[in-house]
Every structure is written in C-alpha cells, then in structure tokens.
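fyi for ur records
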Amino acid sequence: MLAKQIRSLQHPLVKEFVKLRKDKAYRYAKKKVFLSGKKIIQEVASLFPISLLILKEKKDQGKIKAKEIITVTDEILKKISGVKNPEPFAAIIELPEYNSIDTSGCILILDNIADPGNLGTLFRTALALGFNGVILTPNTVDPFNDKAIRASKGACFSLPFLTQTKEELLTTLKKSSIYLADMDGKDIEKVTFEKPCALILSNESLGAGIWPAPIDIISVKMKKNVESLNVAVCGSIIMYKMAHGK
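which gave:
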C-alpha cells in the first residue's frame, strides 16, 4: 500500500485531525476518534479497524493494519497530537458506540466528572477490577478526549459505556444496589457490597448532587486534618472493595 504524504501544516487533513482531537461535538458529528501513541493504537487495532494510520515514515507501520496510511512531518505530528515530543504514530478510528451494558456485576457511574485525567484513571481501574461498564451523566467529560484516552491507557475502548440522565440510569440499574461516595458517608469498612451494584463518583469540586432515589452514602475514612482524596484515588479504593465483595 502506497502512503500519501502530507508536508504542510495548512493541509485540510491537519486541521481535521486537530479538530477531532479538541472538539467533542465535532468528534461525535463525524463519528471519528483521533488516537496518538503506538501502544494505544496497537491495542485499539485489536478491537476496532484503523481507518487511517498517520506515520512519520511508512516503515514505522510494523504489524498495525489500516485501511489507509499517510506520512507526515515532525511538525505536523506535534500539531495534531498536541504534545511536544510525540511518537511517530497517530490514527483515526470510527467512534465506538454502545447500546447497552451488562448490569449483573459492578457498574461505575461518573457524575459530572470534569478532569479527563481523573476520568481516564477511573476507566482504567474499572477495567482492571472487572467492572462491567461505566455510565456517564451528560455533563461528564468525554472518554474520547485525548487526555482521557492517554490516562485510561485505552481502557475507554475496552469497557462499554453509556451516557444517561440520573433518571435513566436509575431505571437501567433498578436491580442494583447503588452507592454514592461522599465524605459524610458510612465507612466502607463497615459496608458489605452485594452484586449487582453500582458506585457513583461525583464532580471534583462540586461534590455529590441530588439523586431522586434511596442511595447508600459511603466514605473512605481518613485521619483528621488530611485533605480529601482525589476522586480517582478515592474511587479506586472503593472499586477494589466492591469488586471483592467486601
């Protein structure tokens, strides 16, 4: 397969790649996701077809299969990836879409999470601990944000997720025990988690909002005079407890 060459920063495809990386609305309108980094691309290629592979040189392709290949300059790689020292690998795939998730085990609910690094870390932890999927409330940051993809190490492509309102997700999880993490909740050491179950983690600064259903409030108890834990750290501790049924 011959690779098309792009050498100008003003090329329309360069602008397209940058917009796919930065603009959530554009990603979903085009139903495409921008990826950067060899390891993530290799992992995603085992799950979804690579529509377009972007390389510094054709020989860099290795065993990664793609429908189309283009080669670009270092300057273009920097611009489209948004990092100072990018790997010579980028790609475009079709946007994964999920219609349902298996609610028979553990589900993670991310409510209005704003930081893509936190979201990516939580996706990665949920995948590692065997959670069945993730439900996002509408104002939560996009899992296909480039920073979220990097933080998740590609877990957002392996773990199915849905975006639902609070009312919708409570219907989806009507057979599950639902727990909300909050500083004033019950010590998780005194909680017995029974499957199916779900954990709600809330916005980093705003905290838990109002939920229209009876939900168990739980907390990771800490020493006094210690600042509250980062949501990704707190969530990972609770998810471990839930996964092991304790």
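The first helix runs from residue 12 to 22. thats all i got for now
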